Structure formats: structure tokens, C-alpha cells
């Protein structure tokens, strides 16, 4: 599987879509069908997955929430402290480290709302613990990441949706390589001879990657460039998300 194959399946037009800052990487082959031991280590190194599990455990059999379907302010502070996240948050909406996993749990039916009470849901895949059922846990993680990507594709920008699709999906897949993804620093880009559309591609993609970094999907750092690294399983998650969306669109046309 490579980047162009996956995005071609989603019927994106490569002539319009391929971002200039990824031209050397779009045909890179991406790892698939890896052993569970390798995936497990990756799961434990991805904060988004650990936070989603922690939130499910925090909800437990049910917990009082707000009329917006999120944790109360007091519970938000408590779970941030439990996770060791240093964030001054008045509400859960002020903590992207939590709201990203939370919206995914909600969209995937792992949590539900009854009035102002937050309760566990059935989930689109069973929520499993890695020490109890490794195979089911791997399916849970795959469903979790697929639902995240699908929701961000479907949502409007002000609801947490992607700014730059498909550029951001391509960048995210490139970031799964062992060396990750390196993008030029904004100061360097401003000195390049790029037209407004090309600059827009860069800014939109960088905004999406930065948000995914806050959600805990990506590891990031910088020196002369901006570096991003994503778990390899995100490639399968993107493939599943775009396939499901494409199928939904086909069904709607029938």
C-alpha cells in the first residue's frame, strides 16, 4: 500500500491534490500486516489511544456530565491531572488533549449521553484491554483511529474537521514512515516562490497536523524543519475511513 493508492481509492484528483511539500514521498511504500508485538508497542507510544482508554475507564458505569455532552469542569481537571497533562482548562472544550479522544469515543458510540448523564455505549467495536484480549484490543484501536479520521473528514471545520483534505491525509500517511515526515519551517516557506494556493496547502496541512499532535496521534518536534511521526496503524485507519465514506457516497447516489 502507498499514499497515492489509498487516496486514489477515495477518488481525489491527484492533479489538483498532491501537496508540493510531499512530492518526494507520495509513492513511498507503507508498512502493513505487521506482527501484533510491533503494533502493541506502537499503541503504547500513542497518547491518543491511552487517553481514550483512560476516558472510558473514567466514565465507568456512568458519570454526570454537562448539557453539551462532555465532562464537568471538575472532572476535566481531575482527568487532566490523572493523565499528567499540564493544561489550564476551564471546560473540556479548552483541552484538545481530551476533546479529540472524547469526540471520537462519542462518534464511535463508546460513550453516550442520557440527559446530562454520560454512560458507556456499545461501541462500533468492543472496547478491550490489551492484557485481556490482544486481538480484540487491536481491532478496538483500529476502529478508534478509523473513527477519528472519518469524523474529521465528515465534520465542518468549526466542529473539529480537517482543514486540508486530502493533503493532510497524505501528510499523515507519510509521517508513518520510520523517518517520519519533515516539512519546511514557516519562515523558510515564506521565502519560497509559492503562489497563494500552494501556501494555502501548506498552512492548512500544518494546522491539521498540529491539531492531531495536540490530540496525541502524532509526535512532533522541530529544528531546521518541522518533524512529525505517526503510528503505522494510522495508514490502515485512513484506508478504512476513506473506503467507508466512499461507499456511503455511492449508496447515497443509488
Please count the beta strands (DSSP E, at least 2 residues each): 6
Strand content: 5-15%
- Going by helix content, strand content and strand pairing, the class is mainly alpha
* Residue runs with pLDDT of under 50 for 5 or more positions: none
> What's the N-to-C terminus distance?
29 Å
- Spatial strand arrangement across the major sheet: 1-3-2
Q: What is the helix fraction of residues, given as a range?
A: 40-55%
Element pattern in H and E = HHHHEHHEEHHEHHEEH
The biggest sheet, with number of strands, parallel, antiparallel or mixed sense and barrel status, is:
3 strands, antiparallel
Radius of gyration: 18 Å
- Shape verdict: globular
Number of domains: 2
This entry's quaternary arrangement is: single chain
Please tally the helical runs, counting DSSP H or I stretches of 4 or more residues. Answer: 11
Mean pLDDT: 86
Describe the structure.
A three-stranded antiparallel β-sheet has the order 1-3-2. Strands 4-6-5 form a three-stranded antiparallel β-sheet. It has eleven helices and six strands. The model has no long low-confidence stretch (mean pLDDT 86). With 254 residues, the chain is mainly alpha-helical. The protein folds into two domains: 3-30 and 162-253, no CATH class; 34-160. Strand 2 and strand 3 (117-120) form a beta hairpin. The chain is globular, with a radius of gyration of 18 Å.
